[in-house]
Amino acid sequence: MAEEKLSFQAEVARVLDIVVHSLYSQKEIFLRELISNGSDACDKLRWQSITEPELIADDPEFRITLTPNKDAKTLTVADNGIGMNREDLIENLGTIARSGTGEFLKNLTGDSKKDISLIGQFGVGFYSAFMVADTVEVITRRAGDAHGWRWTSDGTGSFTVAEHENAPRGTTVTLHLKDGEEEFLEEFRLRHVVKTYSDHIAIPVLLKQGDEEPQTLNEASALWTRPRNEITDEQYKEFYHHVAHAFDEPWLTLHYKAEGAIEYTGLLYIPSQKPFDLFQPDRKQHVRLYVNRVFITDDCEGLVPAWLRFVRGVVDSPDLPLNVSREMLQHNPMLRKIQNGLVNKLLGELKKKAENEPEAYASFWETFGAVLKEGMYEDHERRDKLTDLLRFHTTHGDGLHSFADYASRMKEGQKHVYYITGDDRDAISQSPLLEGYRAKGVEVLLLTDPIDEFWVANMPTYKEFSLKSVAAGGADLKDIKKEESEDAKDEDQKADEAPKEDLDGLITVLKATLGERVKDVRPSDRLTESPVCLVAEEGDMPMHLERLLRAHQQKDSETPRVLEINPGHALIKHMAAKAKSGPSPELEDMGYLLLDQARIVEGEAPTDPVAFGKRLAKVMQLGVAPAGA
Asked: What UniProt keywords are attached to this protein's entry (predicted)?
């Protein structure tokens, strides 16, 4: 097959430009990334060879070999792992084939330190080779294939692919080093980089120089199998970088061995930054499963639940059968026991952090709290443990608060834990729906994650208190005791409200005017400053949830809501007085404007934007007209 010249995907070209021009302070990481890729390739072939031993019959000893050539100014990194075919080459090296590309590019800042982390999270470490090389050549043959392929690029926008005869199994990456990068041909430099970044690799990393016997540069034993007191913090960190393909620091490192009915070792990490696939629809977990140090899969559905998918690391068990298939894993009772152990251990560590290091835990919660809350909806068995880990922003003040904090501040006579949902915390914290609660000093949880609409409905109570949205039904504020001075204010406010018969007349006019646009019109107990608000009738779908479903084309129609009016507001009193004379065009216009105002505050558009604009202009014109005009 003749050599083909192909263009990089546009996103790859941009990543390459950033890598080459922004990451000079950490050039040596290119070697870490290439060695990690080789290690993964060997792991995959080792697992596949369990059922297809003929794939490695001619070369059963896995290894990664570094070959510096000072005369040619090249450094070669070769592995005898799974290898690639033509489609793999184009898919893996010519495109960014993972979802989330748009978000990835949107988050690139031009700040090299931040972009290092973003690029690492996105899993494009191969391109770091272009930091030190002006040309990169990849020769590869997939295990079991008859012939190999050659991929070549200078990293400027295109690459070539051609057949390559006599290619060895695996992948050989040859870097033609730029001027000034000769340090990466020196034995002491290569030895230092491998020892620093890749000592944990369970596959030997060999240095081959000329006709000399290859030297092993790393310890070549799986890090998780070593005693904890023999592993440094730096080694733990570098293994995290390897297993997570990340550049950030791990927020939590958990290394333990479980013994008893089933034996396994876990080395787990919680990142300090969000991985890019955190909210992808497939919700894949990323903990690798090994059996006696043999890699089985990094996509084991039952190993950790989807609501812990931010966890990275490895689990190794000698009790699972070595030839276990992914289909068998899904129904394996031993795997279920391992999952229980892992989840309980992780939740226990999170609880310790929450109790002993609240500031550090707050950082974790802001990063991964929205994912952890999915467990409140999906995992009934562990809901109590998760409840203790929940943290919230509330109307009490800045910072995060637990359910226990909230309960300790509940008012006498308060029977509910109140919450409000929305898209933006600043916006919902100023909602008219909160006015009555603030007036009585009642704290309200401010919930802004989409999952909040689901788990609160799935958790009807906290201890003896039910959870209730401030946007649903009646406000239930009458039974909550206030200070005596506040009670006096209440009496003054009631004395200043529109007379009941006038208010009843206004409600009759508004109901007739608005018709089916509202479910009901009634006086409000929750409003103290605003004239109106919209609330959901008891049993109706919450307004924020309905808006989310409409945005995702899961719901077409809009449910009419209850319009609540504030009897003490000057505008409502004025309208109530006018209503004594019966309906009028002016009252009707004001009724529509009140409804549209309430809709806008809730994040909805006016029912009829053109009519809204005309009515608003008419009212404004009346407001600025000269007296007697």
From this structure: ATP-binding, Chaperone, Cytoplasm, Nucleotide-binding, Stress response
**pTM exceeds cut of 0.90:** no
Q: Please give the Cα distance from 39 to 79 (Å, whole number).
A: 8
What does the pLDDT look like over 207-237, one tens digit per residue?
999 888 999 998 877 889 999 999 999 999 9
364 in Cβ contact with 423 (< 8 Å): no
CA distance 462 to 479: 19
Q: Which long-range contacts (CB under 8 A, 24 or more apart) does 336-339 make?
A: 336/302, 337/261, 337/262, 338/258, 338/262, 338/264, 338/303, 339/302, 339/303, 339/304, 339/305
Q: For residue 520, what are the β-bridge partners?
A: 562
Three-class SS state of 338: helix
Binding site for ATP: what residues are annotated? Answer: 33, 37, 79, 84, 92, 99-100, 121-126, 171, 326
**In 3D, which of 168, 198, 203 has the Cα closest to residue 62?**
203
Q: What percent of the chain has pLDDT over 70?
A: 87
> Mean pLDDT over residues 519-529, rounded?
92
Q: What is the DSSP letter of 24?
A: G
Give the span between the Cα atoms of 121 and 367, in whole angstroms: 14
Nearest to 122 by CA among 138, 106, 145, 134: 106
Please list the alpha-helical segments (H only) found in 246-356: 326-329, 333-356
Task: Say which amino acid occupies 27.
Answer: K
Q: Which two tokens stand for residue 506?
A: 């206004």
CATH fold group of domain 4-221: Heat Shock Protein 90 (3.30.565)
Write out the DSSP string of 30-89.
HHHHHHHHHHHHHHHHHHHHHH-GGGGTT--S--EEEEEETTTTEEEEEE-SS---HHHH
- Cβ atoms of 117 and 29 within 8 Å: the answer is no
Q: Side chain identity at 385, as an amino acid letter?
A: K
Strands 518-523 and 561-565: parallel
The CATH topology of domain 225-358 is Ribosomal Protein S5; domain 2 (3.30.230)
The yes-or-no answer to whether 4-221 and 391-484 have a common fold is no
- Using CB atoms within 10 A of its CB, is residue 220 exposed (0-12), middle (13-18) or buried (19+)? middle
How much is the average pLDDT of 326-343?
Answer: 80
Burial (CB < 10 A; 0-12, 13-18, 19+), residue 581, is exposed
- Report the Cα 193 to chain-centroid distance in Å: 32
Token digits of residue 141: 């043959």
CATH of segment(s) 391-484: 3.40.50.11260
| Cα distance between the two ends of the chain | 89
Q: What are 422-461's pLDDT values in tens digits?
A: 999 999 999 999 999 998 899 999 999 999 999 998 888 8
The domain spans of the chain are 4-221, 225-358, 391-484, 494-536+554-624
Q: How far is residue 437 from each of residues 399, 417, 562, measured CA to CA in Å?
A: 20, 12, 19
CATH of domain 494-536+554-624: 1.20.120.790
Quick one: which H or E segment has residue 604?
none
